[in-house]
Specification:
By secondary structure, this protein is mostly helical. It has helices at residues 2-21, 31-51, 59-73, 76-88, 92-120.
Length: 122
Amino acid sequence: MSFLFVALGGALGAVARYAISLIPIKTGFPILTLITNILGAILIGFIVGITSDKEGISDNTVLFWKTGVCGGFTTFSTFSLEAFNLFENKQHVSGGIYVILSCSCCILGILCGKKIATMIKL
């Protein structure tokens, strides 16, 4: 049964990721992937924060949100390909900025998500 929760969450996350990719922003910098990954980091931080020390939340609910939705939504493989392409195209500064922003902003996003969860916990 847990596989079903992961699959449903993954489908929802993938559709949300695709919807963001349709935003008409044309730039040489992969801003939509960066935004998607930061939002995913905030979401997973929030999920971890809201479900820690919270009884009554089923394991399947956590699997749906954390493994399914976040796993289907975030785009590590796309991030990796875009960073590789920037470096391969000799855009070393943009590539470096992208890698640094992606890693640091996503870690900060997890912190923010956990803080938001702590603030709204009842």
